[in-house]
Amino acid sequence: MLSICIYGMIYLGSALMVYNIIAYIRYARHVRMTGDWAAERRLLNLPLILLVCFLFGYLAVGFLGKPDLIISGILFGGSIYVAMMVYLLRRITDRIKENEHLEGKLMAAEASSRAKTSFLSNMSHEMRTPMNAIIGLARLSQEDKGLSLSTQAHLEQIDASARHMLSIINNVLDMNDICEGRLTLREERFSFREVMMQLNSLIGQQCHDKGLSYNCQSLGEIDEEFIGDGMKLKNVLLNVADNAVKFTDAPGSVNCTVEQLEHEGEERTLRFVIADTGCGIAPDFMEHIFDSFSREDFSSTNTYGGSGLGLSITKTIVEMMGGHIEVESEKGKGTVLTITVKLKAVVQEAAQESVPDAEEEISLEGRRILIAEDIDLNAEILADLLEMEGMSSERGENGQVTLDLFEKSAPGYYDAILMDLRMPVMDGLACTRRIRALDRPDAKTIPIIALTANAFEDDVKASLDAGMNVHLPKPADIDLLCRTLRKLLR
C-alpha cells in the first residue's frame, strides 16, 4: 500500500511537471507576444530548461531509483510549488498589462478632459465676444429717446434674450467645473448690502417688465460685510429668484426675506426664503428637481425656457458653503425655496467706520479710463458706454500698446484700466505684471479690472495673481462696472 502511494506521487508529480512545462511555454509565448521583452527573451528559456531537467530527474527516480516516502513527497511537493509559481507569474503579468491598460485609459481620459476644457474655454470666449456687442449695442440704442415704443420693446427683447443665452453659457461652464472637480469658493471680503442691491436691481426689473410685484426685506439685523465668495452667493440667489420670476405669470408676486440666525464666534448662518405665486411643482417631480438637465415636462420648457442646470448648480454651491436648500411647492399655487449658507463675519474697525459707505458719493464724472481691447467693435461699445456715464477713455490695441500709453502718461493721468486677457503681441496678464512692476507712484495703486470673455475659475485666479483688482466677465455690464469703479476709486 505504501509502495503504491509512493509511486503514485512520483508519477502524478511527473504528470504535473509535464503540465507545468506546457503552461510555462504558453506563458512565455504570451509574454513575447504582448510585452516588450526584446532584451529578456533569452532569459525566458532558462526556466524551461530547468523544468525539463526536473522532469527527467523525476522519471529517473521513478524508474531507476528506489524512492521512499520522503523523496516522493519532496518531488510531488516541488511539482505543486512549480505549478503555483507558473500560475503566480501569469497573474502578475496579467495584472501588469491590466494596469498598463487602465493607465492608458486614464491618460486618454485626462487628455479628453483637457481637450473638453480647452474647447469650452474657447467656445465661451468666442460666444461672449458677439454677446458683448449685442448687449452693448442694445443698451446704447435704448438710450435713444427718439425710438418708437415698438422699437424700444424689440430692443428690450433682444437684451433679455441675449442675457438668457449668457446665463446658459455660464451654467454650462459651472457644470463643467463641478463635473471636473474644479469648482472652488473664494475667501474674500465682500459687501452683503451690495450683493442684495444687485439682486434687487436685477430681479426687481424683471418683475416690473413682467407685471409682477417684488418685495425683499431683512428680518432683524445682518452684518454689513462677510468673508466668502460673494459672487457665488449672488449667483445662487439670482438662479433661484430668476426661476421664481420665470415660472410666475402676472398678476403674481415674488418675495424674498433674509435673516441672520443666532450665532457664536465669527461664523454666521444666513437664511434666505424666496417665495412665488407661480405654477408650482408636481409632487412626483420634487425628488428630481435638483438633478442635472431635469425639467418637469417639455411643454414647460417651451413656455418658460431653461437648460435644467440652474438648481443643480445652486445646490452644489450651497452645500459647498456649508448650507442646504429646501423646497416646498403646491401645483398651481407657488413654490417656496429656503436657502441657508454659512459665512465668516468681518469685525468692523473704528478706522473703517469713517470711510464713506455710499457708492453714490464717488463721482465717475470726468474720470479717464484706459481700455486694453484688441477688437475694434468691443472697444467702441465700451467707450460709448463709459461716455454715457460721463467718463472719457483711451484705447490700447494690445498689451504692449497699453503698457506704452501708461508709461508715457503722467502719474495719476488715468483713473483705472480695463484689461482684456486675450490680446496679440502681449496679453493682459503680462501687461498687468509689467505695469505693477514699474517704478512710478501710481503703478501699484491704479485699479486694474479684468474685463474679459475668459470666465473660468482658473482665469479669475490668474487675473488676481497677476495683480488685477477685480475680474469681470464679458459681456460688459455697465451698471456692475460702474459700481466696481466707485468701490475701487473710493
Write the layout of secondary structure elements.
Layout: H1 2-34, H2 45-63, H3 69-142, H4 149-180, E1 188-191, H5 192-210, E2 213-219, E3 225-228, H6 230-246, E4 253-260, E5 267-276, H7 298-304, H8 310-320, E6 324-330, E7 334-345, H9 350-353, E8 368-372, H10 376-388, E9 392-396, H11 399-408, E10 416-419, H12 428-436, E11 448-452, H13 457-466, E12 470-473, H14 478-489
Parallel strand pairs: 2-4, 8-9, 8-10, 10-11, 11-12
Antiparallel strand pairs: 1-3, 3-7, 4-5, 5-7, 6-7
Task: Walk me through what this model shows.
The structure is a single chain. The radius of gyration is 35 Å and the shape is elongated. It has helices spanning 2-34, 45-63, 69-142, 149-180, 192-210, 230-246, 298-304, 310-320, 350-353, 376-388, 399-408, 428-436, 457-466, 478-489; strands at 188-191, 213-219, 225-228, 253-260, 267-276, 324-330, 334-345, 368-372, 392-396, 416-419, 448-452, 470-473. The chain is α/β, with parallel strands linked by helices. It is built from 14 helices and twelve strands. Strands 1, 2, 3, 4, 5, 6 and 7 form a seven-stranded mixed beta sheet that branches. Strands 9-8-10-11-12 form a five-stranded parallel beta sheet, sandwiched between helices. The longest helix is centred in the N-terminal third of the chain and has 74 residues, at 69-142. Mean pLDDT is 80; it is low at 298-305 and 350-360. Helices cover 55% and strands 15% of the residues. Helix 3 runs antiparallel to helix 4. Strand 11, helix 13 (457-466) and strand 12 form a beta-alpha-beta unit.
